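Ticket #530: bound-state structure for glutamine.
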Amino acid sequence: MAKFIFVTGGVVSGLGKGITSASLGLLMKSRGFRTTNIKIDPYLNYDAGTMNPYQHGEVFVLDDGGEVDLDLGNYERFLDTSLTFEHNITTGKVYSSVIEKERRGDYLGATVQVIPHITNEIKERIRRIARDYDIVVVEIGGTVGDIESMPFLEAARQMQLEEDVAFVHVTYVPKLKVVGEQKTKPTQHSVKELRSLGIQPDAIIARSEDPLEESARRKISLFTNVPEEAVISAYDVEDTYEVPLILEKEGLARYITKSLGLEDRKPDLRSWREMVEKYKRLEETVEIAVVGKYVKLADSYLSIKEALKHSSVANRVKVRIRWIESEDVEKEGYELLKGVDGIIVPGGFGARGTEGKIMAVHYAREKGIPFLGICFGFQLTVVEFARNVLGLEGAHSTEIDPNTPYPVVDLLPEQRGIDKLGGTMRLGAYPVRIKEGTLARALYGKELIYERHRHRWEVNPIFIEQLENKGLVFSGISGDDKRRMEILELPGHPYFIATQYHPELKSRPMNPAPVFRGLVKAAKEKKFGG
Ligand code: GLN
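RESOLUTION: The complex was predicted; output attached.
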């Protein structure tokens, strides 16, 4: 029988509850417990697919095509596992299945209510996942006290009687400059709020700038009925991969396993620790530009940031990211890209800033700067090449210019007639077949790979021959229908590769995505010599 750890949040959002949950998952997994993580998002959207990355950060995509919250990316990276759409529970999903059941007559005669129908649906969804595991960490999004999260907290409260459950509450302990003292009152209030909902936390994770002072720890313990040893100090660190090590040192997992009646096991964190140490010791730095549209919010490109970090460790060189708003390149020109050792043009949608991205591709191609294009970046690489090498003036993707004389990137045939519906893009993992003797083949070291997608447009087959005649190589094509272009590269350039899929989504701390690893290697060679 699986045991459950609910992670709730108090005081403010953005405390790193996702990283905490992922860390807790890793600490349990490293003790040999079969562990998985679930994310509950109390918003009404069915999934994250139609949400603006400005608000919630990047939309993460799973193997099964689920468009989910970026915390699932954190879980996958920390636990080195692959999750399914079912691991992200939203209010939208819960209500739509309850309403569907009501229409089907499943509740015939009953008044359908939040308690018990919605709460039962929530519990059922959590338990469905739990079947194959010893421990399930369930992160409840939002902050305790939000109206939206009430049904989920209520379901969790009910589960205390029915299962082995532990509660971990993540709060914020601010330090007021004037008094120079850590303040515990917000934590006290937030725990009071939680207790008013029938939930007594087993452990408190106090997020603070500096390590928690002993007096603050004592106070929190006294006011919340949580023993001092279970008031865990989680202070700010530069590298999120350090968090599990800090929580382990603080004894969080030991305490939770004890309160769940589990055997006290020693964790095996050797390789994780080694990875963190290696990263810390890096001295040399390369600079890679990410030319995108939502760069003001680095979370919009979280997985790219992470993939670069993974590649950093593998190549023994630190990567500094120069975030560049592509619209600024349009206004200020190539100057903004001067001095970088590599360029990434990431995925994206819509017209704004497109020309700036095309300029970035152009600059990388002409100046021999290591380059990686992803999804929209892949499509715009084809546009740039068509315009400037094939001389097809006005070539474009029909997404941006429906009347272009040269539609080198066009809608997937099955996408015609679909307009902006959620969950209708080409989503999730599909096979890609890599041609022999190419850069891509050298990077991956095999012929068949599975990578995650999220797009509506693709390279227009009509132009492939022309593009290839001028030296562009399509080194990867879809392995199922064998007709979609998936990887392109440019022989003779130090490193120039682009993918229709999103390689960053499957990059792992100990196993970086090959095209990222290759980019950082090429950037390092450019700067320090090969
Ligand atoms: N907008 C492009 C498409 O839909 C690219 C999508 C992306 O970059 N994820 O095909």
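RESOLUTION NOTES: The two ends are 54 Å apart (CA to CA).
TICKET STATUS: resolved
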